[in-house]
Structures are given as structure tokens and as C-alpha cells.
Specification:
The chain is an alpha/beta fold. It is about 50% helix and about 10% strand. A four-stranded mixed beta sheet has the order 5-4-7-6, covered by helices on one side. Strands 1-3-2 form a three-stranded antiparallel beta sheet. The chain starts with a helix and ends in a 9-residue tail after the last helix.
Length: about 375
């Protein structure tokens, strides 16, 4: 069970408690699950009971105890323990590997991973000035809103002076057929077209709306100091590893990342570094991949493509160190562990490609 799936399970338990009259609260849009804090136990924990207590008119521990039986009955959850003032702590079934489940989920959903229905039925009209950054931001917002079941259209008004005056704020009005959202990001100081379409879009989308974008040749630098380069390079490296694996005769398959498989054939000198690297690096990659649906929902809800752009940098920075241990090294032979590492790398590549496409930026196979 992935953190996203666990969050949905907790939401389902809250809905059931509300439907059965045990809780009288508004069901939240989402529930955050994270590693247990001090005094916690298990793999994950949530403070949802504390969040709902005031509205429910009950102590947090009472709310937690109402939810606990429903959560224990859910598939993939072995036990639920209430600690502190009302934290719910989850121990997942021993046979469940959250990372493997996450990789399988991403492979199954492909480019649709992270899409949801948070904005289902909502219709937005994005009003923007005649200014290049506002146009690019609106174009990305239309795509991102669609991933959450909403629909957005663009209309124009005002100009550069209006956009400067409002300093990047987004005003919202309710109109007869949905919401009117005024997108007024701080304008670009100069024409970004000389950077080329991809670097220009990144220069305009990566900063927060209230920050002035930098239109400089730094966005074209093919080195790690350039965030756009890191994101696109990480994607290209993943695709390159897939081609390399095909030449070695194996394909991606989710599974344990260590090198202790029945078909592993390595020398003792080579086994240690290959088996230790994934164990050290995979947790850092798990979090940004599992957070992607939440980030995408937030970007759609707040009309903020910059959140998506910055998260793609986080994914790239997490996956790049991991890629060194995907293919066999030296005398190693392809094993189940290598297939599992390739599956995890390809899952990250899927997220990077999907996010870049929503920003209107190409995800090259070669770089």
C-alpha cells in the first residue's frame, strides 16, 4: 500500500463514519500520511483525528478510536495503534512493500498517474493580460486543471501595466457558469523567445507567480547547475538505461531492490556496492514519486504550475544518484534486483515525462 492509497483508505474510513452517524464533520479533501513522529510506531501515521476533533465535538482520541476498527479491516493494513493525543499509526502487512506497490501503480497508470477528480465538474475561466508569461502560465494551468477532472478556458483583458500592479496575485470571482480566475503573474522583463520554446517556457513557469522570471542564457546551460537540464537529463538517462537493459536481454519488473535473488550471479567483491546503493537511495526516491499526485492536485487547485516544475526538479535530484546501480557492473549478470531497479527508474521517468508534458516542455529520449 502506497502513501497515496493509505490516504484514500483513511478518507474512506472517515466517510463511512460520517455516513453511519458516528462523526458529524465535513470530509476533508485529502489526508496527509507521513512517517511516525516521536512516540509513534509502524510505517506511517496521520493526525486526521486531531484535525477533525473540534468539528466533531469529540476528543481526538475518541475520533481516532472511531476510525480505528474501519482501518484495521482494510486490505494491506495489519494493525492500527492510537498514540499521543490521537495519532493513528499504521503497521502494514509484512508481505506488502510500499515501494513495489508504488512502482506497479505508476507502471499501470502510465501518463495518467497522479490524475484524479479533485476538480471534477468545475469550470474555470482564466482571464489573463496580453503578456507572454501570463499566456504561458494559463496554457499550463489549462492542462493541469484537466488532470483533476476540471475544465478551463482562457480570455484576455488588460495589459502589462495591470499585471505589474497586481504583483502575481490570482483573483477569483464566482460567475454564472463557474469561476472567473484572473491570472496576473509578474511579467517577463524581456522577450524569452531567443531561449527556444522549452527553455523559455521553463524560465516563465519555474518561478512562483509573484517572482520576476530570469530571461538569461543560464536556462540553456547543459550542466547540473541548470534545473531544467537536470530534469531532462534524468529522463533521458532513464530511457538510455532501458535501451541498455534491452541489449543485455532483460526488462523492468517490480520487485526487491537488493541483490539477493535466486538468479543473482555476482562475485563477492562486486555484490556489496550493488546491493547497498539501492537500499540507501530508494527511500529518497519513494517520497517524491508518491507525492506526485498530491503536488499535481495542489498545482491544479491553486493554478500554480510552478509547484509542478519545482517538484520535477526534486524527482530528478532523487533519481539521478540511483541510476548508477540500475545496470549490472563489471562481471555482474542481470538479476531480479536489476529488473526491479530498472522498474523503479522507469517509474521516475514516467513521472518526469508526464510532468514536463503538462508544462508544454519536451522530454527527450536522448540528451
Amino acid at each position: 500500500m502506497t502513501p497515496v492509497e493509505l490516504s484514500r483508505t483513511v478518507l474512506h474510513a472517515v466517510r463511512c463514519a460520517v455516513d453511519e452517524g458516528q462523526l458529524s464533520v465535513v470530509v476533508p479533501e485529502r489526508v496527509v500520511v507521513s512517517e511516525p513522529g516521536a512516540g509513534g510506531c509502524g510505517e506511517y501515521a496521520t493526525n486526521v483525528a486531531l484535525q477533525l476533533a473540534r468539528a466533531a465535538g469529540k476528543p481526538p482520541r475518541t475520533v481516532a478510536e472511531i476510525l480505528r476498527p474501519r482501518l484495521i479491516a482494510a486490505d494491506g493494513i495489519e494493525d492500527v495503534v492510537v498514540t499521543g493525543p490521537g495519532f493513528l499509526n499504521f503497521r502494514l502487512g509484512q508481505e506488502v512493500d510500499p515501494l513495489q506497490d508504488l512502482v506497479r501503480e505508476i507502471r499501470a497508470q502510465g501518463r495518467w498517474y497522479g490524475h484524479g477528480d479533485a476538480l471534477a465538474g468545475q469550470v474555470l475561466t482564466l482571464r489573463v493580460p496580453y503578456e507572454v508569461r501570463a499566456e504561458v502560465v494559463a496554457d499550463a494551468v489549462v492542462r493541469i486543471v484537466a488532470t483533476q477532472g476540471g475544465r478551463a478556458t482562457v480570455e484576455h483583458r488588460g495589459g502589462r501595466a495591470t499585471a505589474r500592479h497586481h504583483g502575481g496575485r490570482a483573483a477569483v470571482e464566482h460567475v454564472e457558469h463557474g469561476e472567473l480566475v484572473e491570472l496576473r503573474p509578474v511579467p517577463a522583463p524581456e522577450d524569452p523567445a531567443p531561449l527556444g520554446p522549452d527553455a523559455a517556457r521553463w524560465a516563465l513557469l519555474h518561478p512562483a507567480p509573484h517572482d520576476r522570471p530570469r530571461i538569461t542564457a543560464d536556462h540553456l546551460v547543459q550542466r547540473e547547475v541548470n534545473p531544467l537540464f537536470r530534469v531532462r537529463y534524468a529522463h533521458a538517462r532513464v530511457r538510455s538505461l532501458g535501451r541498455g537493459a534491452a541489449r543485455l536481454g532483460f526488462a523492468a519488473e517490480p520487485g526487491p531492490l537488493d541483490a539477493t535473488g535466486a538468479d543473482t550471479a555476482v562475485t563477492p567483491a562486486l555484490q556489496a556496492p550493488a546491493s547497498q546503493a539501492p537500499a540507501l537511495q530508494a527511500p529518497a526516491l519513494h517520497t517524491p514519486l508518491s507525492d506526485y499526485p498530491r503536488i499535481l492536485t495542489a498545482a491544479a487547485t491553486h493554478r500554480a504550475p510552478d509547484r509542478l516544475a519545482r517538484h520535477l526538479v526534486t524527482v530528478a535530484d532523487a533519481v539521478l544518484p540511483f541510476l548508477t546501480c540500475v545496470l549490472p557492473i563489471g562481471e555482474e549478470k542481470p538479476s531480479a534486483a536489476h529488473r526491479a531497479r530498472l522498474a523503479l527508474a522507469e517509474a521516475a521517468g514516467t513521472v518526469l515525462a508526464g510532468g514536463l508534458s503538462l508544462l508544454g516542455i519536451d522530454a527527450p529520449e536522448h540528451l
